[in-house]
Amino acid sequence: MTEGDNFLPTKSNGNTETQFTDFEGKTSFQMSIFNLSNAIMGSGILGLAYAMANTGIILFVILLILIALLSAYSIHLLLKTAGVVGIRAYEQLGYRAFGPPGKILAACIITLYWFVDGRCLIIIVSVGIILPLALMKRLGYLGYTSGFSLSCMVFFLISVIYKKFVTECSLEHSYNETGVTESINNSTDDTCEAKFVTINPQTAFTIPIMAFAFVCHPEVLPIYTELKTPNKTRMQNVANISILAMFVMYLLTAIFGYLTFYGKRNFTKLLEMYSKKDTLMLCVRLAVLIAVTLTVPVVLFPIRRAVLQLLFPDKPFHWVRHISIAVCLLFLVNLLVIFVPNIRDIFGFIGATSAPSLIFILPGIFYICIVPEEQEPLKSRPKILALVFVTLGFIFMIMSITFIIIEWVTGKKTSGGH
Fold first, then answer.
1. Nearest of 181, 350, 375, 412 to residue 281 by alpha carbon
2. Which residues are within 8 A (CB) of 374 and not within 5 positions of it... i.e. 6 or more apart?
3. Per-residue pLDDT tens digits for 123-180
4. With CB atoms 3.0 to 4.6 Å apart as the test, which of 38, 73, 136, 360 could cross-link to 146 if both were Cys?
């Protein structure tokens, strides 16, 4: 299949071939970008200024560019693998590569990773906002809410940039009742000097934060399925534009957040650094909450598909199953959030294993196992790169788990998460 081939097989010799999807793709190019960008975006953006403070501006930019390129290449591997076999779901690629165990593994990893994002949900938001949106039959319908979610994050970015120019620089900041910054005279000479390259004990902790900044891989194939006139080139363009947009947003947020607070320690979450009495930043907090909330229905689609593939692999669409699985997933997440006291540590460990699997390990393994050797020999350059990709994923996984264990032992918390 060439880069321009349609992903939906057409009629040939009067016979209708099995289609890639059970309905014609009707989602526009723009709406697909909104949905994928929304899937990429997460609360991890709040920790990027912290990452820049511990890497320096130049090193941060290099790392962010590298991660963005790796994520785009990972999606390329995923799309090319799916194109070879005409498969539309992550877990189905697992089945094609390793049979039932591969299908179960992929479905479990997708489901576990979503629970990491679901830890902040509350019952009212789940029932009143998330559940109705999650009951949509097609992912394309969420393009409008995804666009609104991205608008909220643009408002967040503009506010961070604005605050850079009205916030006085000092090592410590305090705020009076009106939210105006007051300087405390305990700063050092280099407090307000931006560092271009920084190496310290916290630098290594920032690598997993950035490595998982572009996670969207479970949503790629569902969005591909619903894309109007789908082909690999068109979907890769959707992915590239989405990653580029998030790259710009991440970079600007990190730079202006860092330049606002410079060397102030312990600003692991950017919004926590602003006054709680500042009206603008209170609105920004609300906007970020709305944005992250509207991300959940988009992320839930591949989770429900994974569950359906595990429990009802050969059943046609049915509203009862569609609704029941969404309700059960949200109910389970809320139970965990409410009744499990140390849920952050549990989800952090799950995220450290599932995120590198989704970004690096599984796409590389699927490519090596599914793409036939007649098309790509095992020692060909693409498959060698895929193997390097898999190795990189295991390195990130080991690093993340190691840092989590260090946090548990020392009691020191670092910023992270998607």
1. 181
2. none
3. 667 777 778 888 887 887 888 889 999 999 999 999 999 988 887 765 544 444 444 4
4. 38
Name the residue type at position 280: L
Six-digit token string for 31: 């709406």
Nearest to 191 by CA among 158, 218, 168: 168
Q: Which two tokens stand for residue 56?
A: 């320096």
**Phi and psi (nearest 5°) for 192?**
-100, 25
What is the bridge-based pairing of β-strands 173-175 and 181-183? antiparallel
Beta carbons of 22 and 315 less than 8 angstroms apart? no
- Structure-token pair, residue 188: 């050092």
What is the spatial distance between Cα 56 and Cα 183, in angstroms, rounded to a whole number? 24
Structural domain boundaries of the chain?
A: 29-410
How is residue 266 annotated by DSSP? T
- For 176-188, give the DSSP string: -TT--EEE-S---
Q: How far apart are CA 355 and CA 348, in angstroms?
A: 10
Alpha carbon distance 116, 354 (integer Å): 9
What token pair was written down for 208? 């997993």
Question: Residue 344 — very low, low, confident or very high, per pLDDT cuts 50/70/90?
Answer: low
Q: How far apart are CA 286 and CA 288, in angstroms?
A: 5
Q: Considering just the CA atoms, what is the radius of gyration of the chain in Å?
A: 22
The phi-psi region of residue 164 (left if phi > 0; otherwise alpha if psi is between -120 and 50; otherwise beta) is alpha
CATH 1.20.1740.10 fits 29-410, yes or no: yes
Contact 126, 210 (CB under 8 A): no
Return the closest-CA partner of residue 361 out of 338, 387, 382, 390. 390
Please name the amino acid found at residue 274: Y
The mean pLDDT value for 309-323 works out to 83
Residue 6, beta-bridge partner list: 231
